[in-house]
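Backbones bend. Our protein:
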Amino acid sequence: MAATVLDRYRQLVDAASNRLSETVRDANVRIQVGSATCENAAGAADVLNEFRKHIRAAGRDDVL
């Protein structure tokens, strides 16, 4: 029986998930908060400070 499009899609998703888990196993988490004028006006500094607070509280050392 020929594979359906959905079968092929699932194969691709599985392959991509496996590859991703292999390549980022030891990678750090990177969080980027924009700091352009409009982003600052929208509260980017507060967002950044909140991320830092929660990362410290969680004791995480793998977050950049």
User: Anything to note?
Assistant: The helical segments are 5-23, 37-41, 44-58. The first helix runs from residue 5 to 23. The chain is about 60% helix and 0% strand.
